[in-house]
Design goal:
The protein has 436 residues and is α/β, with parallel strands linked by helices. The protein is built from eight helices and 19 strands. The protein folds into two domains: 209 residues, Rossmann fold; 138 residues, Distorted Sandwich (Coagulation Factor XIII, Chain A, domain 1). The strands form four sheets. It has a six-stranded mixed beta sheet with strand order 5-6-7-3-8-9, with helices on both faces.
Length: 436
């Protein structure tokens, strides 16, 4: 049996809250630091020994463990999904495997050439053009010029930004960054591919294209680690999954079983958010600023009566006049089952709205008696041409209650939650007639 492609053994990473950033020093200070370095290093070693032995308990309150004793193995050709809530340690794990950051303890053995896509623009030099960045990334992966040239046209075609390939990367939108960065990472033949949640930034068509490409890469016998909040994508792509929570590995096994455990944990929690907002970003020409859910009286509410209307409101900023843009959102179950998708251009002539620079609020009213009881999420985003969009990585979660209607009466209960099965629970009139 061959050695695993990746072997992670009791990997841990800790951060100190409020740690000071490195400061610039004068020449004199540098000389003094050099002389005192041996003594200082001995002190650091002593503190580390005390910390590991539990003697420095007074420092524990200042410490956050982003990862704690995580262990797993991954064989060649496997596709591993890494799931968990924000802050669970998913990105930290990939950064350690990518050698971007070092672990506090434990180790990771990696057998193969790694290509990673962890953050928008990772590995791109802003002053270089897209073309130059492709060759730079290829060289970093150990490829020679001829190898990169053979793949170049395929990379550019996949990215869909041919017109901008000779434009400096600093002028790219986040969407253009992701398109080219993913194309480079997937086409330059790495043996191990690490993909973080960056694909959440892309539009639906490009996400589908990326998932298809990752499937092709996996079928060629290469290994993939895929971090995502999109449970449908994880289930379709990954042969196995691990669940992280507060830096600890909670579950490791078949994808469907791990996802079911994750969704079950979410269902049991009380993490409901009637309003979320996002900080202004001047680099985004068309930005989602806030998402809210309102009850039938116009009040913010996380728990709604499913028999009453409710409203979804979205605040957004436009930083340039346009007519080729839209505000959109989808209602989904917590397992990413799509229930409904809508855009503010749905009923406009030719799908066009003339928009002037400024701040706006848009809202949509949903009728009562439409959806069944349960937890739902609102995933909002904007479109502005194909390469430009804003798709926040957080979503709004709310709950629809059934207060004893026909859909939750005891004689009609057919699931564990006490609700009628299915997504819709619309009252329909029956007409019965005696025959003969």
């Amino acid at each position: 049996m061959s050695d695993p492609t990746i072997k992670v053994n009791e990997l841990s990473k800790r951060y100190r809250i409020g740690a000071k950033q490195q400061c610039y020093k004068t020449f004199r200070e540098a000389i003094v630091d050099g002389i005192s370095a041996p003594v200082r290093n001995l002190a650091k070693l002593r503190r580390l020994t005390e910390f590991k032995s539990g003697q420095s308990l007074n420092c524990e309150k200042d410490i956050i463990w982003a990862l704690k004793d995580v262990s797993f193995e991954l064989n060649k050709g496997e596709v591993l999904g890494i799931i968990g809530k924000n802050g669970a340690g998913k990105t930290t794990l990939l950064k350690i495997l990518s050698r971007i950051t070092e672990p506090t303890s434990g180790f990771a053995e990696i057998n193969g050439r790694i290509s990673s896509l962890l953050e928008v623009g990772t590995g791109f030099h802003p002053e270089l053009t897209g073309r130059e960045n492709v060759f730079l990334n290829g060289a970093i992966l150990g490829m020679n010029k001829n190898e990169i040239e053979r793949k170049f046209d395929e990379i550019v075609d996949f990215s869909g930004i041919e017109k901008f390939i000779d434009t400096p990367a600093k002028r790219y939108s986040s969407g253009m960054y992701v398109r080219l960065a993913f194309a480079v990472a997937a086409h330059l033949e790495p043996e191990i591919l690490l993909i973080d949640e960056v694909l959440a930034v892309g539009d639906f068509e490009f996400q589908k294209k990326c998932l298809g490409k990752m499937g092709d890469v996996a079928s060629e016998g290469r290994t993939i680690l895929f971090v995502s909040h999109n449970m449908k994508a994880v289930k379709n792509l990954c042969t196995r999954a691990i669940l992280l929570n507060q830096g600890k590995l909670i579950s490791n096994g078949p994808t469907a079983e791990v996802i079911d455990e994750y969704i079950g944990n979410i269902e049991k929690s009380n993490e409901l958010f009637p309003e979320i907002s996002f900080p202004p970003d001047s680099n985004k020409l068309f930005q989602i600023c806030a998402i809210r859910i309102l009850d039938n009286k116009g009040n913010l509410s996380v728990e709604l009566d499913r028999t009453q209307p409710f409203r979804v409101a979205i605040d957004y900023d436009i930083r340039e006049d346009t007519r080729i843009a839209s505000v959109e959102f989808s209602i989904e179950k917590l397992d990413d089952t799509l229930i409904y998708h809508t855009a503010d251009t749905d009923l406009t002539p030719d799908g066009i709205i003339q928009r002037k620079q400024g701040s706006y609020t848009a809202s949509v009213k949903f009728p009562g008696y439409l959806l069944n009881a349960g937890k739902y999420k609102i995933d909002a985003f904007t479109r502005w041409g194909k390469p430009d969009y804003d798709h926040p990585d957080r979503y709004l979660v709310f709950y629809l209650n059934d207060y004893g209607t026909y859909a939750s009466r005891v004689k009609n209960v057919v699931d564990k939650q006490g609700h009628r099965r299915g997504i819709l629970a619309i009252p329909l009139e029956w007409d019965s007639k005696k025959l003969g």
